[in-house]
């Protein structure tokens, strides 16, 4: 330690003799001073700035329970949010690093939209050289690379593209319905108990395999198929993975030396081989499918993917399984819509089921929601949005205590601001009776409320690129289930849901079980 060397060197230059006890005492003093300088002094930052802050422990900061794997980051920021009512923003510490927690909806909208140029980097960064597989993901890159890649990929997620892949996802949702029909019929009067978290992960796996790669995965019927196993391994909430993700996300300075990759070698190898095999097969026999992967092949041939010059949430009905009236109203709207379209469900007809949108948005507000699909974006419901101040011009935040008061904060370049999505979606000042599942909150009239803030897919230029695909999956899954079955709570699921602290995406620890029965006509 430099401080220890300096102390010993200084004493030696004065001609003093050193014994073992002297060196030990000096070392302890040096360690104590280093502890004060790096672990305690930084915690005075917010007091010196005159900004209200959340309690912080030396070294571990305000996120000690995250470091000890007692709570997820979303739970911790949710606690901070409700500990500081009435504030526009507060300070907290990630370890010794001063960080801002934004609470005011208008400030949040400004950061994500109007003032995006000041916050155009996600806080999480991955070394592209050390981890090529993840480092070139749209979520992790910034600046011109991000702009070019976003521009190139966006057409693949347009409304027109969603219409073209509608039959592909529709076929997977048909498989889901057939599988459940078989299981529910076999279960008889007692009903079929199913974990929606696992079922929707399998549905999403099959949808992505079909849309992205043109592959028939069939994990709905066989949950141990290799494609599903590798996808599960990617985000499996084990202690080992939790430690790895924690180091990558919260301690990047350590990972510069450890060089831990976000995705394990065997998972990388599997999906790399999948891509290479699909490309080779299509090149060999001239196959051209109307899927997302074909579009990527074309972009690659045109040189547009050379830009070097990225769970699955819990399943459908988690909340409305406890609300039979909501199910019945939704079922009637679905049936009426299909009847108007000569007994078929078209892409346009699906978009016209207004109550379906309201139900899905009501589910998504809770953070453990409907089959949301691949996370092409930052997991909004799962992890809070964290942006880094990047502009050379300082950014001003007004007084956190209220409008018209003197004082405020000039953000230093590099400071991180956190947007606590889960807290915002559960604030009774924004959503009265926030724990109530109420699709009517999201009716066209109620959505005009300018105070409300709803961010399941983020907002602004870095809003989820895959939101349309996620919604398409969710809608088709819900229609397949609700139109055929009655859902009710199962005793295996405890309310409130226990969040898994090992999962860096907000997710229930013990699954989300419901009982399905055939509708009685």
Automatic annotation (TrEMBL):
Top-level taxon of origin: Eukaryota
Record keywords: Endoplasmic reticulum, Heme, Iron, Membrane, Metal-binding, Microsome, Monooxygenase, Oxidoreductase, Transmembrane, Transmembrane helix
UniProt keyword annotation of NADP present: no
Compartment list: Endoplasmic reticulum membrane; Microsome membrane
Residues given in the record as heme binding sites: 464
GO molecular function: heme binding; iron ion binding; monooxygenase activity; oxidoreductase activity, acting on paired donors, with incorporation or reduction of molecular oxygen
Pfam family of the protein (one): p450
GO cellular component, one term: endoplasmic reticulum membrane
Main subcellular location of this protein, as a coarse class: endoplasmic reticulum
SUPFAM superfamilies linked: Cytochrome P450 (SSF48264)
Topology with respect to the bilayer: Peripheral membrane protein
Transmembrane spans: 20-41, 238-254
Protein family membership: Belongs to the cytochrome P450 family.
Protein name: Cytochrome P450
